[in-house]
Amino acid sequence: MSSNLIRGTFILTLGTFISKFLGLFYVIPFYSIIGGDDAAALYSYGYVPYTIFISIATAGIPLAVSKYIAKYNAIEEYAVGRKLFKSGLVIMLLTGFAAFVVMYTCAPFFAKLSLNGEQTTYTIDEVATVIRAVSFALILVPFMSVTRGFFQGHQSMGPSAVSQVVEQIARIIFLLAGAYIVIHVMNGSVVTAVSVATFAAFIGAVFGLLVLYWYFFKRKKHLDKLLEQDKGQTDVSLFSMYSEIVVYAVPFIFVGIAIPLYQLIDQVTFSRAMSQIGLANQAVSAFGVLNFSTQKLVIIPVSLATAFAMTLVPMVTSSFVKKDMALVKQQLNKTFEVLLFLTVPAAVGMALLAEPLYTVFYKYSELGTDVLRVYAPVAILFALFSVTAAILQGINEQRFTVLSLLTGILVKLSLNIPLIKLFETEGAVYATALGYLTSIVINIVVIRTYASYSLRPLAKKIGLITAFNVVMAIVVMALYGILSLVLSTETDGPALLIIFICAGAGAVVYFALSQKSGLLDEVFGSKLDGIKRKLRLKKA
């Protein structure tokens, strides 16, 4: 179990990390091409509604389909999964096109909502143009999502991982080339450049889809052999099939749109709150820092949680259907161990090195540094919410996911404007953290109640992870203090050198302490032993 979970998670994590890192590093040249925080805010105005629409259009399909197929594969009813896949392709093509039509048609409404009906740096028509450009991707992405879910249901994570990377590479190449040509070759406007950049999501989807279907035809013989082993004792009608899929999918929709919903709340309340405290002239650029610049950095550690969620659902579902509760608890323990072991130091390091990080990726900014410093630890909450929500899917208590998210959203809505008035841009981050914390507490209570699961067996490891992060933080802060005396954090080269030295030293300290205490072996187990043996053989 642990080996399969770690292997599947490693494959998806690798693909997701590569995809997210590409999605992070492209912002350096893109930010330079489009020219600052105001243009970044325009990009966010288009992408936040798109992210919500794409989550609704796909209806949580990758995870819902993977859970459904894993369930029936566990009892050797392979034909049921294939039937779902074939009909799902047609339905996803229809829902994707419907979502495209709605988003394209309603673009002026979303633009007006984003700008609170006011003409700021950009007009409502300009924002609507960007929203319409990104809406084309809705036609293909749902179609692609059902194919990813099909592979994940067979616990084959490679196709999803590779397609994510190819999709991201194609999107970024088109995005950067298109934006550069519009501004520096054609002398076009920032609005046109950002529109081309958002249309790149459609181009990426084309390439991602091609990769998935290459894998499908390559593996079709193996998949057909599984059909030959089908017991044929279960005949599920399409109505019954989709009734079950809807039950699975609705909570996945909420999980998928969690971060975009929080961003949407900022999008429709931020300018108003800033205006009420006399900072209307700073609202657009500050929103760009909040919802584009820092968010791009913070989301990186969350990719691990996303990979875990994709891997965890079909595995826990399979164990739960077989009523092997001991295995379910073992899978949950391993998930929390690896998740916390990797995400906590990443978030802590990002908070400690916020100033040079922001300088390297964008430009020196006091506001960017301050927001990133308080935003970075929220990545841990993003990750925990994704994983606890995935666990609820696996133990068939997905209805509580909706309850927990809506409660968190209510907390965010209630506190966002008051906290922005008190703490300005950072107030929006505090409201997000409190909302997510509320959702996580609800999820953990439900898991404890319905899976008889306790976090107590993890107490020692959580304590060690916390202690090692404290030691790592002390080392990083000491080095950072010394280096900042001789190197400037306000220019790219010296800031990058500070990051390499401090992050490298922090990683060495953290992993050395983990190795010496035995925590590293306990968390990664046999998988780590296998890697060590391979390294010894190579040396020999």
Automatic annotation (TrEMBL):
One of its GO terms (biological process) is cell division. It is a multi-pass membrane protein. Its main location: membrane. It is found in: Cell membrane. It comes from the Bacteria. InterPro entries: PG_synth_SpoVB, Poly_Biosynth_Transport, Polysacc_synth. The chain crosses the membrane at residues 12-35, 47-69, 89-110, 130-151, 172-190, 196-216, 245-265, 297-316, 336-354, 374-395, 402-423, 429-450, 462-483, 495-513. GO terms for cellular component: plasma membrane. Keywords: Cell cycle, Cell division, Cell membrane, Membrane, Transmembrane, Transmembrane helix. This is Cell division protein. It comes from Domibacillus iocasae. The lineage of its organism: Bacteria, Bacillati, Bacillota, Bacilli, Bacillales.
